[in-house]
Amino acid sequence: MNDKKKLPETLGEELSRRGMSRRSFLKFCTAVASAMALPASMAPVMAEALARARRQSVIWLSFQECTGCVESITRSYAPSIESLIFDFISLDYQHTLQAAAGHQVEEAREIAMKENWGKYLVVVDGSIPLKDDGVYSTVAGETNLQTLKHVAEGAAAIITVGTCAAFGGLPKANPNPTGAAAVQDIITDKPIINVPGCPPIPEVMTGVIANFLTFGDLPPVDHLKRPLAFFGDSIHDRCYRRTFYDQGKFAKSFDDEGARNGWCLYELGCKGPTTYNACATVKWNQGLTFPIQSGHGCIGCSEPDFWDKGSFYAPLSTGQWGSAEGIAAAAVAGAAVGIGVAAMSRAKQKKTSEQG
Amino acid sequence: MDLLEFARGPAMQWSLIILVFGIAWRLFGIIFLKRKKDLAEPRQTGVLGGAVKTIFSRSVPARAFWSRVMYSNIVGYVFHIGLAIVVFAFLPHILWFESILGFQWPALPTSVITLVAVITLASMVALLVKRLTHPVLRRISNFDDYFSWLVTIVPLLTGMMAFTHTGFGMRYETVLAIHILSVEFLFIWLPFGKLGHSFLVFLSRGTTGALFARRGART
Amino acid sequence: MSGLADIGVKIESGGFVADDALTGMADAVLREILQHLSALRDHGQTHVIDLASLPLTTADRRQLREALGEGEVRITIEASGPTDIHETAYAGVWWVEYQNLLGATAIEQVEITRVPAMLPSHDDDIAGAVSRLADAMEGKNPAD
Fold it and tell me: What's A289's DSSP letter?
């Protein structure tokens, strides 16, 4: 970080100086192309483009967050060369990973912004509190809101990592005491791509960053600004337990015969059908497994407000409303109205018959 | 709040409130209606047996009418039984009932449900065709008949779309939300239109049976 | 607490049925390979098929691999983890397996080409090699 002594050279030159061969480079691009569902023949083209590119300045802003997203991205593996993402970018500001501290880092950020004005990439994790002028989260005396607005001004694009930065996430959960908001609620004049998840899959985060490095542009997105390459299919669409859903074979508890046989977890509250993410294909822990494979239903963490959409263990087909008191009251009220109407009709009949 | 949250939340709660309110209103309203005193001397006093008998006997058309009503009756039965299977034997539906009633019952395999749903859908179309083509039936049909048909077929159709993940460009969540909303609309409409027969049919049949028994007519 | 023997152990038949079934996808891929191989013969056109992008079950993948067989060439490249390449029994059709540093297969591709893209030395690497070799001959430490 902060090795800005020399004028920027191309990535190709810099990496060969560090002893990284062009084959490693190609392998990296092959992995990115595969992850982003690009034609495999694109990899050599990407490698050439990337070799000629300059090191991308990245400013990483952490707001109301738990650092789980950073924990996740540092475990990116596929391929192992993905760790080299930090050779491809110049990470000029990142609270958790930076060695420096205090005023120096804030200064470094300002310098990086000035030098790369209009070209740097901003990565945001965490939501931004808006209530009471944003006093609920400040860094170096500046509220998150001020920092975001200031840094976003000179950004080429913004990548939000994690559900908090993308949609507000846990800080926004009812009753949202800090007035937490997502980046896209505040910044509207910059290209934004959302990589939600709690945390997001490491390879998805690095894949999106790599895509920006190689093409200088953000990949195609869905209606929630999530990259289609990873968020195009629902968990349910790509779930290996899908066959059992189609057959109507459901686990009834977390440790019954059905659960052991890999039956569908719908009844145990799996939110796979309404959740879009790459967990079922890219998987976690170096492609080892993902929650459903480990026996727990999907909790829908890459969807907006997943925390407030009822119990994680309530089946998707059930309602999300509290008590049945209203219904009981409706029964009583209905009966009362029915009897009242009948009484009125009786009175009227009586009157008519008396008259007649 | 997105469409699915609305459908699963307030819309579901309010539609159920209206359903229960409406059913209670209509049931109590009808039960407590003043009935004209029958001054004729009853042929028999035990009318309960007649009421019960009619409830069952009317489930099969009289032999004399067989040739004329068999089609509607058989297709009608196929539709009603099919709909009951789809509604009460599909696991996601059972889970919904469980969340309200607190208990569940065994589900049928999904392949069976799919087959039954297709048959049910076909039977509904056949019944509509009959209604539109039969000269007498067409003349005695009103808006309520067609609207109730629509309100019933839409949940079936959207349910199949949701299950098979065919959204014709719509996302699954949207299709699911539309399915739930269409069922909620059915709930709202049910007590007030001809669909009210779902809770009134045996009451009215029993009343007729009791009346017939009293007069000594065949029940 | 009593011993481990008291804990019930249930032996289950391994693997999920869903992933062990042949779907016929392998045949479809073979047809695609044939088409691209003809294009290579006629126009010199190369092509890469990323197997991860296809809905292949484990059994399908095995079937495809067996159908293509093994040819004369077998190469291992060590660049950020091993990459195993072998020419299949059909000249011009290469099976490329990228592995990460932990040895897990990250990407599998079928490349239809004369020489897989990973193989040739890149001009930039050659340029670097020239100066490194020259430095080495002068007794310099290239790291300086």
Answer: B
